[in-house]
Amino acid sequence: MAIINSVLGPLDTADLGFTLMHEHLIVAAAGVYRDYPELLGSNLIDRVVDELKKAKEGGIDTIVDLTTLDLGRDIELMAEASRRSGVNIIACSGWWLDVPRFFEGVSADQMAEVFIREVEEGISGTGIKAGLLKSASDMTGVTPEAEIILRGVARAHLKTNVPIALHSYSPGQVGRMQLPILNEEGVDLKRVKMDHSNDTTDVEYLTWLLDQGCFLGLDRYPGWNVSPLARTQTMKALIDAGYTDRLCPSHDGTVLRVMAANPLISEEERLKANPYGFLYIKKVVFPQLREMGVSEETVNSLCVDNPRNFFEGG
Alpha-carbon distance 52 to 278, whole Å? Predict the structure, then answer.
């Protein structure tokens, strides 16, 4: 057992229950929820609470919200949603991909200082503390700006002992660039979760990540570039290879997003792809695993034992 930070205060890992390790209450940009709420639609907090209540009724106890400041994080929204729904929510510090030009010349130590404050003192002056650290690299690999953030996250981790989640572009095997930097910084890779790992079906690459000691976030369900079934078949291959205890299925789902007049993906298309919201794993993925011959004990461990072990230190 260990005590970790949730948005409502200290949380014993024994009380995590069924946990989704990579979700979002909102994805937008910094300040949109407060300053341009009309872009997100109407009844914002009620929509979030309704989705979380459905999740709670379906057996979801905890959601790890990996929304950073540049993705539109609003810590008071998270806390109110958690209070009203009964779902534990764990917030993150760190940074996603939108590193502004105004950060030019900022050092890794400066970023680490900010992240440490959000873990140890609180976010936005609220006293609500982050329970996870996040860094991101995508198709372009680890850019110079992303490396500063990554090293800042590593140094914040070493100071706070809060674990790390990495947004990574798995089709391009970007983890091969990210992990050596964490090694240089002295991070024990069993405290690291490589997210979006099921955007590839390359089991050889995923096995390499696991052999470094990482957990894998298999958190793009239903996803768009790889079919949901192929994602589950990849998970089954990793289970068969003996890596069950470091696999963390989730959705990378979002409740609130900008309601664009001309969206790339319509709400109708999103709903058709996933009519179950945060319950897709339970409603679709777990039945697929059972049909593939995965035991009930193993299925149940993926979102209960593995998140707890990750937060407790691997």
Answer: 8
Rounded-to-integer distance, Cα 34 and Cα 260, Å:
18
pLDDT tens across 177-231, in order? 999 999 999 999 999 999 999 999 999 999 999 999 999 999 999 998 999 999 9
| β-bridge partners, 23 | 65
Residue 195 is which amino acid?
D
pTM, rounded to two decimals = 0.97
CB 136 within 8 A of CB 167: yes
Phi, psi values for residue 271, rounded to 5°: -65, -40
Largest CA distance in the chain: 53
Helix (H) or strand (E) holding 307: helix 305-312
Are the C-beta atoms of 255 and 47 separated by less than 8 Å?
yes
Distance CA(107)–CA(159), nearest Å, equals 17
Can you list the domains of the chain with their CATH numbers? 3-312 (3.20.20.140)
For residues 188 and 157, the answer to whether their CB atoms sit within 8 Å is: no
Task: Provide the token pair at 198.
Answer: 């099921």
Residue 138 is classified by DSSP as B
Given a contact cutoff of 8 angstroms between Cβ atoms, the answer to whether 48 and 27 are in contact is no
